[in-house]
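Annex B. Sample input.
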Amino acid sequence: MATLVGAAQSSGAAKTAPSSISGRMAFIEVARVVCIFIVVLAHTVDGILAGAKPGPWTLVFSSFMRFAVPAFFMISGLLMGLRHRDPTYKLDVGGFWRTRVRTIVLPFFVWDIIYMFIFVNLWHSSYFSLSTLWFVLTGYNHLYFIAVLIQFLLVYSFMARSLTPRTARLATMVSAACTLAFYAVSEALFWTQKPDHFFFEWHWGKIGFAWALFFFFGLWLGVEGGLLERIRRLRYPLLAVSVVSLVAYWFEFRYEYLDLGAASRQYFLLPGLVFQFAGAVTFLAFFSTWERRFSAGSFWRRVLPWGSLMFGVYMAHLAVLQVTIPQGIKLLGSLPLILQTVIIGLVTYLATVAGVWICSLPWLLPLNFLLFGGRKGSRKSVAGKA
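Annex B, continued. Sample output.
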């Protein structure tokens, strides 16, 4: 997700989709805004479910939202790949990493320290333990995404000089085998071991193999011209596959929460792999089809500037949820869980967007630099003006 902040310019990018007013493809900006909202909703429902027994429809809602993180990995790879449509493009590895250290690595560790203080107190653990050190180095909770993304960017920076449609396709095939094997092992452990309360996901799920298919498929999508168009033509069959696989995914979710009474997996189940991949590809296929609508529509032109705030919203929203979930449950506890999730998630999302935008103001630039890598927000993105 962090790589989504930069614009992906290449001579071939325009063949894939028209550019928005900001120079970025509009469908990617809108996809980021929508996906971050889905991530906030997913973490909201996780927090609410920690103290309540879910109903079947709540579990459908929860399992459905799990395509958003794979979609972010795909978009990150897509933006890297689009640059290579230009045959003269050569990656400056030194400059690439100087930028990523400032915009990704530094905020990652700053937020890990912030979450360390939050979760050491919530979990009644010690600041001086191997477990705390592990989470600081590899990411507390949702920050695993950044740790995995850094791994992918390292691999990308090594292969960028020789990146072609052929090598991108080969990387996708290898990564697909790795991800499938990881999910198969996870599935086997799920059925043969007692519930581990996400120990497997929070530890082994931070290895790049687990997510490699999504990033490298996105990279191939960016490098090879015409591939995104072929996927757009298949969007309705892909939608059907997504729906069918979601049903199978939901059955395992239901078994975890209602039959076992203890959750162990949110992502790494074989039906989940099918849904997460098909769902993410379907999402990108439909959104890229609507590129002109996003570029020209007055409503969407108001949404586009929010894209620059989404990295900050991702990093900060879990801290905001530590306040909004308990307060929201007190106020909305009589409502159905799905309705509680939507209201609390929306309030959290908007509050975090506002906070990130405030941090982007010039007089808070040092704080912005530490927390969000110096990313600039837009007054229009909060004021709602085109």
